[in-house]
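for the record, two folds in this file. i put them one after another cuz i was lazy. first one right below, seq on top, structure tokens after. the second one comes after a little note so u can tell where it starts
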Amino acid sequence: MRLIERVVRGIWTPSSHEILQPSFSSKACLSASIVFICQHLGLFSAPFSAVYFSVVCFFVYFSISAQILGFFDPFVPFEKVICVVIFGGLVDAVGKLFSRTEQQTSPPSDETAKHKSD
């Protein structure tokens, strides 16, 4: 509904869609639904009341900590690690690190030595 409202008002931008930049509430609801599905499929054995209580405590704790402590999104560290591994940032970072160390260990060229002596 929000997408249609923004298109009608003329301020729609593709990067402002909830799927591309989910809020903490969206991420928490998705993770809670995954926990409930796993419990229903029997991937872990816990009574439904305990799973429900854990999910409610998770929501309450992070809501209160966001209000009182100004706590950030607890999913951010996991998202950063997953993005680095999946999208190749790790390989790029290691490649830059090795290229930087090779440049530092290589001897200066003849032109650089001439300019330093002048």
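(here's the note) second protein begins now
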Amino acid sequence: NPASKDPTYLGETSSSVLKGLQSADPDAVWLMQGWLFLSGFWGPDEMKAYLNVIPNNKMIILDLDSENRPIWQKSQSYYGKPFVWCLLHNFGGTRGLYGDLSRSGPSLVFAHYCLLFLHTS
């Protein structure tokens, strides 16, 4: 977790990451794993402070466990950042492809319709 919940600190932290990426490539887009927000540290205010300083076209978030712990639902779809709804089949040690389609399918459809609603309202 970051050292402070101070919104200015959180914004400066994420801005620094993007600036670092852009120092190597001025057209860089930050591809971030969203499950850092599963920690109890991150409430809505902290997430907004961390995400809102980054332009929407400069970040894509991987919601890596959307099937089980959809962070996009707790964050108003990452406060406007594009994100990828993900389903991880293997956290290690599993050889087969398994899943609960009765839960995964509706969850993905729900995410799709929520995003359509956000973009039309």
